[in-house]
Amino acid sequence: MKPLKCIIVEDEPEFIEILQFLLSKIEGIEIVGAYGDTVNAAIQIEKRKPDFIFLDINISGLEGPEFVEVLDHKPKIIVISAHTEGFMKHYPEVPYVDFVQKPPTLQRLKEAIAKCQF
Predict the structure, then answer these.
(1) According to DSSP H, which parts of the chain are helical?
(2) CA dist 9 to 1, 58, 88, 98, Å?
(3) Euclidean distance between CA atoms 29 and 27, whole angstroms
(4) What is the pLDDT along the chain (118 residues), one digit of tens a residue?
(5) Phi, psi (degrees; rounded to nearest 5) at 97
(6) Which class does domain 4-115 fall in?
(7) DSSP secondary structure string, 16-44?
(8) Predicted pLDDT of residue 17
(9) Label partner for 36 (CA 20 to 30 A): which of 48, 67, 71, 97?
């Protein structure tokens, strides 16, 4: 079975490192990129066609709904944020599969990926 491709869209370098470290512990996941803004992330999502992305909803560039709207390739979205999930009421147009509050744990990331149902 080929690995599931993942892109991280996160503007805090320390959280990119945390996610990369934790995701490296999950068999069958290949991180194909990590981007600190949604404009570059959108370009790379179209090129690399990931199966899912971790998306920090508060990030520079396009806002959540606009970001999702510009994508032709529609990967599963797992939102990661320092806010609580209640914050997502501001972004009802974002079709996310799961919400992970920072800082994430390995178990929580596994649960979120499992919800994507590939």
Answers:
(1) 13-24, 38-48, 64-70, 106-115
(2) 25, 10, 17, 15
(3) 6
(4) 899 999 999 999 999 999 999 999 999 999 999 999 999 999 999 999 999 999 998 887 887 788 989 999 999 999 999 999 998 998 888 999 999 999 999 999 999 999 998 8
(5) -85, -40
(6) alpha beta
(7) HHHHHHHHHTSTTEEEEEEESSHHHHHHH
(8) 96
(9) 97
- Identity at 22, one-letter amino acid code: L
Query: 84 with 101: CB under 8 angstroms?
Result: yes
- Distance CA(18)–CA(51), nearest Å, equals 20
Residue 26 CB burial class (10 angstroms; 0-12, 13-18, ≥19): middle
Q: CA gyration radius for the chain?
A: 13
| Sign for the pseudo-dihedral over CA of 38, 43, 46, 49 | negative
pTM of the model: 0.95
